[in-house]
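Closing statement on the xanthosine-5'-monophosphate sub-project.
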Amino acid sequence: MEETKTQILIIDLGSQYTEVIRRSLRYLGFKSVILAPEKSLEWIENNTPKGIILSGGSASVYDLDAPKIPKKILDFGIPILGICFGMQWLAYESDKSAIEKVKEGKSYGPVEINFNQNNKSALFENLKEQINAWSSHGDSVGKAPKDFLITATSKEGSVIEAMECVEKRLYAVQFHPEVEQTEDENIILNNFAGEICECVKDYSKKDLIREIEENTKKLLGTGVAIIGVSGGVDSTTLASILAPKLKDQLKAFFIDTGGMRKGEIEKVKEIAVKAAINLQIIDKYKEKFIREVGKTTDAEEKRAKFRAVYGEVFQEVAKSFKATHMIQGTLATDLIESGSAGNSALIKTHHNVDLNLGLKEISPLNDLFKFEVRELAREFGLEELVSKRQPFPGPGLYLRVIGVPVTEELLEIVREADHEVTEILKKHGIYDKISQTIVALLGVKTVGVKGDGRVYGYTLVVRTVETADFMTVKGFYLTPEICEEISSALVKHPKIVRVMYDWTSKPPATTEFE
Ligand code: XMP
């Protein structure tokens, strides 16, 4: 079968959202590639894309170390969409006095975008006259360069939110059309790729599955690969995509870290049978995890320790299988937030990124997002068991005992509490509507009263969020009745005196507490 053609080049200028642009295009049916600015020119010359997108980024055009986009990209006549920093670069290159340097810190958060009804842009076709969008920038375009028309402004008209020069096929937006907080449902990217660049919608899930199988097989050659299957969407879907193709070359196993949810291991076994994965359960390292990871209370140190122990255990297991490669279900989000993707900044260390075990690593899902993996799971008939389960981080409940050393007892408290909250949410028919539910124990002790006695105990916090891709999340608000029911159930534990609810959005909070 012929390979789907890459139609759009995304030049990565350091935005946290670069992979999100690629995902949105894939969702719309357009295949794209992300490249660093210095690699872009040669690629354009050899591949002639139908469109170019300049991602956002945290630099200022005045910074000496700002990404160096080759000016020659402007000479091909290929349509270019500049987002955020990308817009500022386009403006600056056309008129060196166009950029107003930031005066009072960054503008960050939702903005109301008003489309110019006198200069209607093809980019905003099929959108309302006004939308709410997500914006994050320091500098801004103070005046549109000659030849450019202003096509959108902020509510008060003080910020130029979009401009274009149709003759030169240059389009620019200050806000981020790719993120879900921008209420355009991908219409802007669809207009750019489909209408302005005339790209063909020819990229389907089947193409994606075939690419995953073929690329993995090519990288593995005649080697033996191990894959840690957690029972979560990512690793289970990946193992079931690859098991028929790799056969005996694939060794799938599950490591019990002691940080699993209630009933998890039984569930994982059941899923493996349904997904036709020959899975080995390895439980002899549980105490080692609790002993070594439990000691630290600092979030990053804990993740680093978990990663170290996980790495050690993985290595022993790999040796026993005589493995040459390891296959990982790492997603784009993991790489972006570990700072491993393109130019984006480190937010959290993930336990399974860049483990350096002396094995060759293959990460076939590393430019996919959660909802896409869920769609692939559906293609494999794993719908009921896998795709509807809420995600759970690799370090598991270790990340949900906050501020105190993690012990078996505290893990058990959060494990039970997590189970009780899940049951209550399911009973009320809302569990499936929530993207992720997190129940964590806060190690700060506070005073409570139970029966006639004073109790000096812990707090449990319940966090329910909704999102499509976990790059950004918003709170999923529970009704007072459900909160009351959850609180009453959780404070039955003698060491729990309070229950709190956390609906802070991401950003600024992350989904997990650590
Ligand atoms: P954050 O907290 O970064 O979480 O907003 C985004 C999503 O990623 C999950 N997560 C992890 N998954 N290993 C994983 O496999 C990890 O170390 C990890 N940390 C966070 C988190 O549960 C949420 O779904």
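The pocket of xanthosine-5'-monophosphate is lined by residues 333, 337, 348, 350-351, 391, 393-395, 436, 470, 506, 510-512 (CB under 6 Å). With this model delivered, the sub-project is considered complete and its resources will be redirected to Aim 3.
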